[in-house]
# Entry
Amino acid sequence: MKIWNIFFAVILFYGCSNSNSGKLIISFESQPTLKKEHELISNLDGTISKRNLFKHLTNQNWIETFLIKRNAFGPMRVFIQKKEPKYVWKEKFYLDSKLSKFSYSGEHPNLLHLNMPIEFVEQWVLAEGKFQLILEDNNLKMTSAAFINSEGWSIILDNNFKINLGTDLSDQTYQNLFLALKYIFEKNLTPRIIDLRYKNGAALNYGK
# Structure
């Protein structure tokens, strides 16, 4: 049985009645942060009828689950659990932890942006942790990851520093990145690109 830890609730009225039977109480499990959540609140304020409520909520791709409790003499209550954004995919959709897609409207600017075919996302998720760890150990922050057939994998850091990882995300690629970062910081170098697509080591590009 789902136990709801209600953080935020909105009371709306259908029609002009202020009676309990004319109230709709919509409760979110967490603070609304998505544009779609606020649009839902606005639309439920008389735009969407009680009869069409179930269908409308079912069509909201950002909702993980919902529960409608009807009361003949009291207010109708709607409990909503939203999907939690984990990534931004191709600047068009959010992806949650289950890699389920839902509409992206520009919120959560600090999420990692993924620019790759959807079939490559799971491969990235499996390897992401070790690359995040080595970057954090060097006080570096990743902002996006990409895969292009002609170039392979790459990541961009928050200072526009780019790392070309090559065509695989193996432990060898991780080790090469570890050694390249160690060399750069020991020598106090400031390249713009680390290119790991070489069998004999890494290439450093200082750009302009």
About this structure: The CA atoms of residues 105 and 153 lie 26 Å apart. Confidence is low (pLDDT under 50) at residues 1-6, 13-19.
